[in-house]
Design brief:
The structure holds 2 protein chains of 2 kinds.
Chain A (H helix, E strand, L loop, with lengths): L20 E6 L6 H13 L3 E6 L4 H7 L2 H4 L4 E6 L5 E4 L5 E5 L5 H17 L5 E6 L1 H27 L2 E6 L5 H8 L4 E8 L2 E8 L2 E2 L3 E2 L6
Parallel strand pairs in A: 1-7, 1-8, 2-3, 2-6, 3-5, 6-7
Antiparallel strand pairs in A: 4-5, 8-9, 9-10, 9-11
Chain B lengths: L6 E5 L3 H11 L4 E5 L2 H7 L6 E5 L7 H11 L4 E6 L7 H4 L3 E4 L4 H37 L2 H5 L2 H19 L7 H13 L1
Helix pairs in contact in B: 2-3, 5-7
Classes of the chains: A alpha/beta, B alpha/beta.
Amino acid sequence: MYDLSGVFELDALTGLPPGATVLVADTDGADTTSWLYDAVQQGLEAGEGAVVVSTEEPAEAVLDRLDGARDEPQSVCVVECQGTERSSRMRGDGVFVYSVPSPDDLTGIGLGLSACFDRLEAAGYESGRIGFVSLSSILGATGDQATFKFAHVVSSRLGSAGYLGLFGLAQPHGLESRRILSEAAELTVELKHTPTGTAGRIWQQQTESEWHPLAGSKR
Amino acid sequence: MTASDPVVLIVEDEPDVAETYRLWLTDSYTVETARNGDEGIEKLDGSIDVVLLDRMMPGLSGDEVLEHIRREGIDCRVAMVTAVEPDFDILEMGFDAYLSKPVKSDELEQTVANLLERSTYDILLQEYYALVEKRATLEATKNASELSDHDEYERLKTRLDELRDELSDTLGGIEDDDDFVATLRNIDEN
């Protein structure tokens, strides 16, 4: 079971089964990226593996955000959208990186994820968190339909691998896109700004919970 | 075979081998054969569901025929038949499955069945998206009480429940990396 309630203090996020996927979406420009990295980081601290699919930043910037990568480099793999062709490399510190030329290369991202799953498995990790930072770039590059199908197929693959999936969705995106992509995940955490910090609520099966202040919202 | 059976095109330059494949498949599928890559391309139209493509042929090679299929966006699944175990990453190559010679009958039947199942998955996924999009539009334009009286909305929800089940039954819901990458490739191509 995976527990995200240490990051988002929302009851629905305890005891998530292996293979569950969570969409973390902002509703008004609240920062989703640092929350997503916190969730991945917490998994690393608990001895889980991690894959980050980074559509904007190169692997180096991803690893700067994750402390766990320094201690156990084989626990982290990165799929980055950089360069002009699909390629893979092993960094000097032992972190595996797969590069695809752009966020609309969904096949390439899939190849990268498959390679990363092989690495984690070979290193003995039976559980792991797969963070997509973020779906917004894929949405911008390919539209609602391809992004929905991508998220659905990835969720299905994570289901059989037993990993936890975390899809970040930042602005700009419309409410309809958010509701469409919610269907591809088990549940959605929506974030918004308040005068005292970030608040979160759960959207699941076409029903939303009340907003709750999130204590980690020093951001 | 009947007219509604899926159509398999065998592209193979050795007549005995092509005939063997044809006999194995003919009970369940409509089978067509082509003796080389050029003839294969001539016979490739919208009716073909699965292509069994010999990699090494005189004239156009299997790789070149595959390139043609992808470039022209011909909607079919391709299993490459190779003389030796491929030493390349088959996922990178752009075909959907491969078979090493000598091909056994159960292996061939299993591969064709799996490729057809992938096509079924793609069709279900397309319907699933169309309904999810329709639901999102209704939810954005109507309030909760309007939705509760809305027959189409209720029908949508019922069909979505069914589709979720059908998708998780098909391909065991994407269990392996071949199915995973092939399904993503199909999204990229459409």
